Protein backbone atom coordinates (compact mmCIF):
# COMPACT_ATOMS: atom_id res chain seq x y z
CA UNK A 1 0.00 0.00 0.00
CA UNK A 2 2.86 2.38 0.84
CA UNK A 3 5.80 3.04 -1.48
CA UNK A 4 8.38 2.27 1.21
CA UNK A 5 6.91 -1.25 1.56
CA UNK A 6 8.54 -2.42 -1.68
CA UNK A 7 11.38 -4.20 0.15
CA UNK A 8 10.14 -5.62 3.50
CA UNK A 9 13.66 -6.74 4.46
CA UNK A 10 14.66 -3.09 4.92
CA UNK A 11 11.76 -2.27 7.24
CA UNK A 12 11.92 -1.90 11.00
CA UNK A 13 9.69 -0.79 13.84
CA UNK A 14 6.61 1.24 12.94
CA UNK A 15 7.26 1.06 9.21
CA UNK A 16 7.36 -2.75 9.35
CA UNK A 17 4.05 -2.89 11.22
CA UNK A 18 2.41 -0.40 8.85
CA UNK A 19 3.42 -2.47 5.85
CA UNK A 20 2.63 -5.78 7.52
CA UNK A 21 -0.89 -4.76 8.55
CA UNK A 22 -1.66 -3.27 5.14
CA UNK A 23 -0.32 -5.99 2.84
CA UNK A 24 -2.55 -7.90 0.47
CA UNK A 25 -3.06 -10.87 2.79
CA UNK A 26 -4.18 -8.68 5.63
CA UNK A 27 -6.60 -6.95 3.30
CA UNK A 28 -8.10 -10.40 2.68
CA UNK A 29 -8.31 -10.89 6.46
CA UNK A 30 -10.17 -7.60 6.88
CA UNK A 31 -12.54 -8.39 4.02
CA UNK A 32 -13.34 -11.77 5.57
CA UNK A 33 -15.06 -10.00 8.46
CA UNK A 34 -17.39 -8.40 5.93
CA UNK A 35 -18.03 -11.81 4.37
CA UNK A 36 -19.06 -13.24 7.75
CA UNK A 37 -21.36 -10.30 8.51
CA UNK A 38 -22.87 -10.46 5.04
CA UNK A 39 -23.50 -14.18 5.44
CA UNK A 40 -25.33 -13.56 8.73
CA UNK A 41 -27.49 -10.75 7.33
CA UNK A 42 -28.28 -12.36 3.97
CA UNK A 43 -29.09 -15.79 5.39
CA UNK A 44 -31.49 -14.72 8.16
CA UNK A 45 -34.44 -13.92 5.82
CA UNK A 46 -34.09 -17.34 4.18
CA UNK A 47 -33.86 -19.05 7.58
CA UNK A 48 -37.05 -17.32 8.73
CA UNK A 49 -38.84 -18.11 5.46
CA UNK A 50 -37.98 -21.80 5.73
CA UNK A 51 -38.79 -21.70 9.44
CA UNK A 52 -42.24 -20.28 8.87
CA UNK A 53 -42.82 -22.66 5.98
CA UNK A 54 -41.81 -25.67 8.06
CA UNK A 55 -43.86 -24.56 11.07
CA UNK A 56 -46.99 -23.90 8.99
CA UNK A 57 -46.50 -27.22 7.19
CA UNK A 58 -46.45 -29.03 10.53
CA UNK A 59 -49.69 -27.27 11.52
CA UNK A 60 -51.39 -28.07 8.23
CA UNK A 61 -54.63 -30.05 8.22
CA UNK A 62 -53.44 -31.91 5.11
CA UNK A 63 -51.53 -35.05 6.16
CA UNK A 64 -49.03 -35.02 3.23
CA UNK A 65 -48.08 -31.40 3.94
CA UNK A 66 -47.85 -32.12 7.66
CA UNK A 67 -45.66 -35.15 7.05
CA UNK A 68 -43.42 -33.10 4.74
CA UNK A 69 -42.93 -30.44 7.43
CA UNK A 70 -42.19 -33.08 10.05
CA UNK A 71 -39.73 -34.85 7.75
CA UNK A 72 -37.89 -31.61 7.02
CA UNK A 73 -37.50 -30.54 10.65
CA UNK A 74 -36.67 -34.02 11.93
CA UNK A 75 -34.26 -35.07 9.19
CA UNK A 76 -32.20 -31.87 8.98
CA UNK A 77 -31.99 -31.43 12.76
CA UNK A 78 -30.86 -35.04 13.12
CA UNK A 79 -27.94 -34.75 10.67
CA UNK A 80 -24.66 -33.16 11.86
CA UNK A 81 -24.04 -29.84 10.14
CA UNK A 82 -20.66 -30.85 8.79
CA UNK A 83 -22.13 -33.93 7.08
CA UNK A 84 -24.84 -31.81 5.51
CA UNK A 85 -22.24 -29.36 4.22
CA UNK A 86 -20.03 -32.09 2.81
CA UNK A 87 -22.73 -34.28 1.29
CA UNK A 88 -25.93 -32.38 0.58
CA UNK A 89 -24.34 -29.42 -1.18
CA UNK A 90 -22.11 -31.67 -3.25
CA UNK A 91 -25.19 -33.64 -4.28
CA UNK A 92 -27.10 -30.45 -5.17
CA UNK A 93 -24.13 -29.07 -7.09
CA UNK A 94 -23.64 -32.26 -9.06
CA UNK A 95 -27.39 -32.52 -9.68
CA UNK A 96 -27.43 -29.06 -11.25
CA UNK A 97 -24.40 -29.85 -13.38
CA UNK A 98 -25.95 -33.16 -14.46
CA UNK A 99 -29.15 -31.46 -15.64
CA UNK A 100 -27.14 -28.79 -17.46
CA UNK A 101 -25.04 -31.56 -19.00
CA UNK A 102 -28.14 -33.30 -20.36
CA UNK A 103 -29.38 -30.02 -21.84
CA UNK A 104 -26.18 -28.57 -23.28
CA UNK A 105 -24.35 -31.77 -24.25
CA UNK A 106 -26.92 -34.37 -25.42
CA UNK A 107 -24.34 -36.02 -27.72
CA UNK A 108 -21.89 -36.76 -24.91
CA UNK A 109 -20.85 -40.44 -25.03
CA UNK A 110 -18.34 -40.76 -22.19
CA UNK A 111 -19.54 -41.90 -18.76
CA UNK A 112 -20.15 -39.11 -16.26
CA UNK A 113 -18.98 -41.21 -13.35
CA UNK A 114 -15.34 -42.07 -13.90
CA UNK A 115 -14.11 -43.65 -10.71
CA UNK A 116 -14.20 -40.96 -8.02
CA UNK A 117 -14.53 -38.18 -10.61
CA UNK A 118 -17.75 -36.50 -11.75
CA UNK A 119 -17.07 -35.44 -15.34
CA UNK A 120 -19.44 -33.24 -17.35
CA UNK A 121 -18.88 -31.12 -20.42
CA UNK A 122 -17.37 -27.66 -19.99
CA UNK A 123 -20.65 -25.85 -20.70
CA UNK A 124 -22.37 -27.69 -17.85
CA UNK A 125 -19.94 -26.58 -15.15
CA UNK A 126 -21.29 -24.40 -12.34
CA UNK A 127 -19.84 -21.85 -12.59
CA UNK A 128 -18.11 -22.05 -15.96
CA UNK A 129 -14.42 -22.88 -15.76
CA UNK A 130 -13.49 -19.68 -17.61
CA UNK A 131 -15.65 -17.46 -15.39
CA UNK A 132 -14.04 -14.62 -13.44
CA UNK A 133 -12.81 -15.26 -9.92
CA UNK A 134 -15.59 -13.16 -8.40
CA UNK A 135 -18.18 -15.44 -10.04
CA UNK A 136 -16.66 -18.48 -8.34
CA UNK A 137 -16.56 -16.65 -5.00
CA UNK A 138 -20.16 -15.48 -5.35
CA UNK A 139 -21.32 -18.99 -6.25
CA UNK A 140 -19.54 -20.45 -3.19
CA UNK A 141 -21.06 -17.73 -1.02
CA UNK A 142 -24.60 -18.50 -2.12
CA UNK A 143 -23.92 -22.19 -1.61
CA UNK A 144 -23.08 -21.28 1.99
CA UNK A 145 -26.29 -19.24 2.26
CA UNK A 146 -28.29 -22.23 1.00
CA UNK A 147 -26.60 -24.65 3.40
CA UNK A 148 -27.01 -22.47 6.48
CA UNK A 149 -30.59 -21.55 5.54
CA UNK A 150 -31.70 -25.17 5.16
CA UNK A 151 -29.99 -26.35 8.36
CA UNK A 152 -31.00 -23.49 10.62
CA UNK A 153 -34.39 -23.16 8.93
CA UNK A 154 -35.25 -26.58 10.36
CA UNK A 155 -34.34 -25.43 13.87
CA UNK A 156 -36.30 -22.20 13.36
CA UNK A 157 -39.31 -24.20 12.15
CA UNK A 158 -39.28 -26.28 15.31
CA UNK A 159 -38.98 -23.15 17.47
CA UNK A 160 -41.80 -21.34 15.66
CA UNK A 161 -44.01 -24.43 15.72
CA UNK A 162 -43.64 -24.67 19.48
CA UNK A 163 -44.30 -20.93 19.87
CA UNK A 164 -47.49 -21.16 17.82
CA UNK A 165 -48.73 -24.02 19.97
CA UNK A 166 -47.91 -22.06 23.13
CA UNK A 167 -50.40 -19.29 22.35
CA UNK A 168 -53.49 -19.94 24.52
CA UNK A 169 -56.06 -21.74 22.40
CA UNK A 170 -58.87 -19.85 24.11
CA UNK A 171 -57.73 -16.64 22.44
CA UNK A 172 -57.86 -18.27 19.03
CA UNK A 173 -61.33 -19.60 19.74
CA UNK A 174 -62.40 -16.12 20.82
CA UNK A 175 -61.34 -14.82 17.43
CA UNK A 176 -63.45 -17.50 15.77
CA UNK A 177 -66.39 -16.53 17.96
CA UNK A 178 -66.11 -12.92 16.78
CA UNK A 179 -66.39 -14.09 13.18
CA UNK A 180 -62.75 -13.82 12.16
CA UNK A 181 -61.53 -15.97 9.31
CA UNK A 182 -58.65 -18.40 10.00
CA UNK A 183 -56.31 -16.04 8.18
CA UNK A 184 -57.40 -13.11 10.36
CA UNK A 185 -56.99 -15.18 13.51
CA UNK A 186 -53.48 -16.09 12.43
CA UNK A 187 -52.49 -12.54 11.46
CA UNK A 188 -54.14 -10.61 14.30
CA UNK A 189 -53.94 -13.01 17.26
CA UNK A 190 -51.54 -15.91 16.72
CA UNK A 191 -48.72 -14.13 14.90
CA UNK A 192 -48.32 -11.14 17.27
CA UNK A 193 -48.42 -13.29 20.41
CA UNK A 194 -46.21 -16.14 19.27
CA UNK A 195 -43.12 -13.91 19.28
CA UNK A 196 -43.18 -13.80 23.08
CA UNK A 197 -42.55 -17.55 23.10
CA UNK A 198 -40.38 -17.70 19.96
CA UNK A 199 -37.77 -15.01 20.63
CA UNK A 200 -35.85 -16.86 23.39
CA UNK A 201 -35.39 -19.87 21.13
CA UNK A 202 -34.59 -17.73 18.10
CA UNK A 203 -31.99 -15.78 20.06
CA UNK A 204 -30.25 -19.04 21.02
CA UNK A 205 -30.43 -20.14 17.40
CA UNK A 206 -28.81 -16.87 16.29
CA UNK A 207 -25.94 -17.41 18.74
CA UNK A 208 -25.41 -20.93 17.41
CA UNK A 209 -25.51 -19.57 13.88
CA UNK A 210 -22.75 -17.08 14.73
CA UNK A 211 -20.60 -19.87 16.16
CA UNK A 212 -21.17 -22.01 13.05
CA UNK A 213 -19.79 -19.45 10.58
CA UNK A 214 -16.27 -21.01 10.62
CA UNK A 215 -17.82 -23.88 8.63
CA UNK A 216 -17.45 -21.57 5.63
CA UNK A 217 -14.05 -23.11 4.96
CA UNK A 218 -15.80 -26.34 3.92
CA UNK A 219 -17.05 -24.50 0.84
CA UNK A 220 -13.66 -23.08 -0.03
CA UNK A 221 -14.44 -19.62 1.38
CA UNK A 222 -11.53 -17.91 3.10
CA UNK A 223 -13.19 -16.86 6.35
CA UNK A 224 -11.72 -15.11 9.38
CA UNK A 225 -10.58 -18.36 11.03
CA UNK A 226 -8.75 -19.39 7.86
CA UNK A 227 -6.91 -16.07 7.68
CA UNK A 228 -6.10 -16.04 11.40
CA UNK A 229 -4.47 -19.44 11.08
CA UNK A 230 -2.57 -18.51 7.92
CA UNK A 231 -1.39 -15.08 9.03
CA UNK A 232 -0.56 -16.12 12.57
CA UNK A 233 1.54 -19.11 11.60
CA UNK A 234 5.33 -18.93 11.53
CA UNK A 235 6.60 -17.53 8.24
CA UNK A 236 9.56 -18.84 6.26
CA UNK A 237 11.93 -17.26 3.77
CA UNK A 238 9.24 -17.76 1.12
CA UNK A 239 7.16 -15.03 2.75
CA UNK A 240 7.87 -11.31 2.66
CA UNK A 241 7.05 -10.73 6.35
CA UNK A 242 8.58 -13.49 8.52
CA UNK A 243 7.58 -13.46 12.19
CA UNK A 244 7.20 -15.83 15.17
CA UNK A 245 4.08 -17.89 15.80
CA UNK A 246 1.37 -15.28 16.41
CA UNK A 247 -1.66 -17.57 16.08
CA UNK A 248 -2.56 -17.06 19.74
CA UNK A 249 -2.80 -13.32 19.21
CA UNK A 250 -4.90 -13.67 16.08
CA UNK A 251 -7.29 -16.10 17.72
CA UNK A 252 -7.58 -13.89 20.80
CA UNK A 253 -8.61 -11.09 18.44
CA UNK A 254 -11.28 -13.39 16.95
CA UNK A 255 -12.40 -14.26 20.48
CA UNK A 256 -12.96 -10.57 21.22
CA UNK A 257 -14.79 -10.15 17.90
CA UNK A 258 -17.19 -13.03 18.54
CA UNK A 259 -17.78 -11.98 22.15
CA UNK A 260 -18.57 -8.44 21.03
CA UNK A 261 -20.93 -9.75 18.34
CA UNK A 262 -22.78 -11.95 20.82
CA UNK A 263 -22.93 -9.10 23.36
CA UNK A 264 -24.54 -6.79 20.79
CA UNK A 265 -26.92 -9.58 19.78
CA UNK A 266 -28.00 -10.12 23.38
CA UNK A 267 -28.77 -6.40 23.77
CA UNK A 268 -30.83 -6.41 20.57
CA UNK A 269 -32.82 -9.51 21.54
CA UNK A 270 -33.44 -8.16 25.04
CA UNK A 271 -34.94 -5.02 23.52
CA UNK A 272 -37.03 -7.04 21.09
CA UNK A 273 -38.27 -9.25 23.92
CA UNK A 274 -39.39 -6.23 25.92
CA UNK A 275 -41.11 -4.78 22.88
CA UNK A 276 -43.14 -7.87 21.98
CA UNK A 277 -43.99 -8.53 25.64
CA UNK A 278 -45.82 -5.25 26.14
CA UNK A 279 -49.37 -5.94 27.20
CA UNK A 280 -48.71 -9.68 27.36
CA UNK A 281 -49.33 -11.71 30.53
CA UNK A 282 -46.16 -13.05 32.14
CA UNK A 283 -45.24 -14.75 35.41
CA UNK A 284 -44.75 -11.37 37.00
CA UNK A 285 -47.98 -9.95 35.65
CA UNK A 286 -48.87 -8.00 32.54
CA UNK A 287 -45.90 -6.17 31.03
For the record, give the distance between the C-alpha atoms at the N and C termini, rounded to a whole number: 56 Å
Number of domains: 1
Q: Kindly estimate the percentage of residues that lie in beta strands according to DSSP.
A: under 5%
Structural class: mainly alpha
**Total helix count?**
9
- CATH fold call: MetI-like fold
State the low-pLDDT regions, or none. 283-287
Q: Helical percent range?
A: 55-70%
Roughly what is the average pLDDT, rounded to an integer? 84
Task: Using the 3D structure, state the CATH architecture.
Answer: Orthogonal Bundle
The CATH homologous superfamily: MetI-like
Compressed to H and E, one letter per element, the order equals: HHHHEEHHHHHEE
Strand count: 4
Strands in their spatial order, largest beta sheet: 1-2
Task: Supply Rg.
Answer: 25 Å
Tell me, briefly, the overall form. Answer: flat
Largest sheet composition:
2 strands, antiparallel
The CATH class is identified as Mainly Alpha
Description:
With 287 residues, the chain is mainly alpha-helical. The protein has one domain (19-286): MetI-like fold. 69% of the residues lie in helices and 3% in strands. It is built from 9 helices and 4 strands, in the order ααααββαααααββ. The protein has helices spanning 13-21, 24-58, 63-78, 81-104, 133-166, 169-177, 182-212, 224-232, 247-276, and strands at 113-114, 117-118, 281-282, 285-286. The strands form 2 sheets. Strands 1-2 form a two-stranded antiparallel ribbon. The longest helix is centred in the first third of the chain and has 35 residues, at 24-58. The N and C termini lie far apart (56 Å). Residues 283-287 have low confidence and may be disordered.
Amino acid sequence: MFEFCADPSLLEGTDWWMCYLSNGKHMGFYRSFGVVMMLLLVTVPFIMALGFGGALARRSSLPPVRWLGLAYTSMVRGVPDIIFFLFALIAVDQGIEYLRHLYFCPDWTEPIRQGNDFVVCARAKMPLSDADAWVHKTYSFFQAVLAFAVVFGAFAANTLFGAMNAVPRGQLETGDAFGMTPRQVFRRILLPQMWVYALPGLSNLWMIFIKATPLLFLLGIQDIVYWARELGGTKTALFAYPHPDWRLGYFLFLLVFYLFLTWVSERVFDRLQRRVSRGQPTVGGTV
